[in-house]
Amino acid sequence: MVTIKDVARVAGVSTATVSRVIHGEGQVGDECRARVKKIVEELGYRPNTNAQALVRRTSMTLGVVTPRLSMTFFGCLAAGAENAAREHNYKLLMCNSLYETKTELEAIDSLREHSCDAIVLHSEYSDESTLIKLANQISGLVLVNRFIPQIANRCVWLDNEAGSKKLTEYLIKKGHTKIAVATSVYRNHDPELRLKGVIQAMKDVGLKFNQDLIIESTANLKGGEEAALKLLEKDIPFTAVIAYNDLMAVGVMNTLQDNGVKVPEDVSVVGFDNLYISRACRPGLTTMNYPVEEMANHAASLAIELSSNKRKNTNQTHLFIPELIERSSVAIAKTK
Amino acid sequence: MVTIKDVARVAGVSTATVSRVIHGEGQVGDECRARVKKIVEELGYRPNTNAQALVRRTSMTLGVVTPRLSMTFFGCLAAGAENAAREHNYKLLMCNSLYETKTELEAIDSLREHSCDAIVLHSEYSDESTLIKLANQISGLVLVNRFIPQIANRCVWLDNEAGSKKLTEYLIKKGHTKIAVATSVYRNHDPELRLKGVIQAMKDVGLKFNQDLIIESTANLKGGEEAALKLLEKDIPFTAVIAYNDLMAVGVMNTLQDNGVKVPEDVSVVGFDNLYISRACRPGLTTMNYPVEEMANHAASLAIELSSNKRKNTNQTHLFIPELIERSSVAIAKTK
DNA sequence: TTGAAAGCGCTAACAC
DNA sequence: GTGTTAGCGCTTTCAA
């Protein structure tokens, strides 16, 4: 390993001078600068970031904590963060929290051991007080999926409720009044907010939402399949189903079709997130776009700037609005 | 930030003793050990990993370089690596190479600056000599998708050719003889190997492969759609199409069906990878399982053990065999 | 414009 | 059993 000392020795200067040349700041004579640069090149010298982090007390790394990297949604989140990190010349440290508060906290601790002071966190289960405490301790911590008023400027979030409301209004405009909802068994933030949006939209036009048409299931393909089955068993008429997310929606669509229910002719189905899968399934799924990658990019930049004091903590929040993606899974409601 | 000195001062011992207690090795008196442990707890002391990395010359981090984290396949790869990293108490440093050799090399350089000496690399475009050189420089470098004989023990790979052959044999057994192939425009390793498997399987039973039935396109959903269109235009009879991967296969299936071709009644379609999408699409896609997560886990462990000399470099290679996943996209060939 | 030197937080001989 | 000490590779005053 070639160190700054090696470069200094070969160039016949002090390490301080080499350091100045490397960082392009500080006064260095032209001739000297050129010589050092040449040696750096020849020797293939690259500064050791651990040593730099030690003395600078910051390591130019961005930590990202998400539940599970193998889920497309979180892969996209990580990709967005990576992008921002690269632009800022930061490295990306990744941790899976596996949907557990304990693992999540451990991940953050281990990130801090690495002097990693910019952190983007997607936390579903930790409670607000824990998160607030954390945010107050770590100036570069940014949440990417939740809004907590006390730390508004540290939240990059999507208006789930408004999105869900918009989606429901779209369905109502198409004549749907008997609307079923396939939601997540874990009724935390997002599921609850999205459900709220549905109910509000219906209430706004004087429709009353039938609570019996709420089906709880796991928030994935299989959960969607199971939800559709349960729904069919109930034998309550419905002309549309709003799934918590795209994965569930596809499961619902498939099972409905397998049971002779035509989508969208008999029943319309919509999802949320606009994952790759919503383009691939048949019929193409109408859904709300969740600009995760863009949001993660924004969150990562924010975290980096906050942690390096390039941006001061204000009261501004960072709200994104989902937009409707129309495909082919919705039709005018049957009037019978 | 609380340092080892703080702990030492409060506990009335030297930093060496604290260090011994932290790592549980070296002789320390029981009473003293207990006192130090208590103080560590009280003060919330956590060792600074940058300082540790500096003196130990190794940073307990695993670097993973893949083309693009937002692609499901690479997300799964990263998840598998994360798992192994966690087990070894390593951190995970992620880089996107964006399918470019230059970015890839930069990523590896920056990983090395971090004293990150265990690296898992999914490289599609770099040439063998570059990779061999790299592997010889970095003892903890492991390739996760290629086999290069000179560095056999550093390769964790899937037998693409055998997998593709097996898949083709399955199709032949179902009576298919007119088989089309939708392959990637970038005819590097995997696509070439998989194509080879197809041709070999047919040759083995005395069938000759019609080169006109090879369609090149991008290796994603859209590419599959385009490939199907081109195939239809050619107006050459075929009863099955083997797509380079699941994404293409789904595109092919959808476009075929949109054009009135029934899958699998008229045409059978198969993919490769066994991504989530192959379960979600209709009909369910018959495909070869690519155990990425497991392979990445293995590769990461190997990289870590190699870099820390816990395992010595042998001539053993690390080969995985894909297995057939039967779903509903294949039927007996029509005899007409 | 350049160099000397202190020190970031930690580990590991070596001494006692 | 425990402490002293010399660095790991780098940055950054301060002095020249």
Task: Write up what this structure looks like.
The structure is a homodimer of 336-residue chains. Chain A is built from 13 helices and 12 strands. Chain A has 336 residues and is α/β, with parallel strands linked by helices. Chain A has 3 domains: 4-47, lambda repressor-like DNA-binding domains (434 Repressor (Amino-terminal Domain)), CATH 1.10.260.40; 56-158 and 292-321, Rossmann fold (3-Layer(aba) Sandwich), CATH 3.40.50.2300; 160-290, Rossmann fold (3-Layer(aba) Sandwich), CATH 3.40.50. The first copy, chain A, has a 4-stranded parallel sheet with strand order 2-1-3-4, sandwiched between helices. In chain A, strands 7-6-8-9 form a 4-stranded parallel sheet, sandwiched between helices. A two-stranded parallel ribbon of chain A has the order 5-11. The longest helix of chain A is centred in the N-terminal third of the chain and has 16 residues, at 72-87. The first copy, chain A, starts with a helix and ends in an 11-residue tail after the last strand. Chains A and B meet through helix 4, helix 5, strand 2, helix 6 and helix 11 of A and helix 4, helix 5, strand 2, helix 6 and helix 11 of B. Strand 2 (91-96) of chain A pairs antiparallel with strand 2 of chain B, so a sheet runs across the interface. Chain A binds a DNA duplex (16 and 16 nucleotides) through residues 1, 3-5, 13-17, 19-20, 23, 26-29, 32, 47-48, 50-57.
